Amino acid sequence: MPLFRSVSRKVFSDSSAYRSPLSGWRGFALIIGAVVAVLLDGWAYQHISWPGEGTDLHKMFRVLGYLPMTILLCLGISAIDRARGVTTGWMVFISAAASGIAAEILKMLIGRERPIAHDGVNYFKPFLQGFVDHSNLSLPSSHAAVAFGTAWMLCYCYPKGKWLWIFAACACAWTRLAARAHWLSDCYAAAVVALFTAWLIRLLIKPRRFANLPVH
Questions:
Q1: pLDDT tens across 15-47, in order?
Q2: 124: which strand partners?
Q3: Which residues, in sequence order, are CB contacts of 165 under 8 Å at separation 6+?
Q4: What does pTM read for this prediction?
Q5: How many CB atoms lie within 10 A of CB 81?
Q6: Residue in 99, 97, 58 with CA at minimum distance from that of residue 189
Q7: Nearest-CA neighbor of 74 among 91, 98, 97, 99?
Q8: Where are the extended beta strands (E) located within 36-165?
Q9: What is the C-alpha to C-alpha distance for residues 31 and 80, in angstroms, rounded to an integer?
Q10: Three-state DSSP class for 23?
């Protein structure tokens, strides 16, 4: 799969870590993804489920969007990776926390309600009403934002495990879809918000101590 590996290197290369997610084909791909997610909202609400919801496996993936779980992960990274673990741990934590906070603020600004609250009908609160009434807000998903905030930063710090990090975040988003707590576009928006958040954090921190260390 030489072509697949080549594309993977371009997408996740260290040089691309500081490139805007909107640059070149990336911006076009994000827009297309948003359109597709919105078009599939109704289908996803009707068809996406999780067999055995409430099982240990379901709970395991759901808590990947729970910030204390990310904190535990960061502490583990700091303890295991002595060369750069503390820096990595802080970067992952900040990315996850900032993504979750950004999602919560956007929820109140946008005011979109959970699909389950209106039996699959798309409904928005009056503008800025979300700051007064926080109930049933859904866009973007804060669980998914935390999970993807963790995943995107891990992709940068430990690129060899990138597909595992992305799979884990997607699995967390899937549990929110299966619970009818979010639209597909809520989870997609969370992934995009987290992507921009992780990118901004990388720009601000730019840890030089990573430069001469082997890729994990």
A1: 455 677 777 788 889 999 999 999 999 999 888
A2: 112
A3: 150, 151, 152, 154, 155, 158
A4: 0.84
A5: 17
A6: 99
A7: 91
A8: none
A9: 38
A10: coil
**Cβ contact 189:82 at 8 Å:** no
> What are 93's two structure tokens?
């934590």
Q: What percent of the chain stands above pLDDT 70? A: 84
Name the H helices within 16-136: 25-39, 41-47, 56-62, 67-80, 85-110
Nearest to 156 by CA among 103, 201, 191: 201
Give phi and psi for 112, each to the nearest 5.
Answer: -75, 140
Q: CA-CA distance, 71 to 154, in Å (whole number)? A: 13
- Domain 24-207: give its CATH architecture: Up-down Bundle (1.20)
Domain ranges of the chain: 24-207
Residues with Cβ within 8 Å of 58's Cβ and at least 6 positions away in sequence, in order, are: 50, 52, 175, 178
Contact 183/139 with Cβ under 8 angstroms?
A: yes
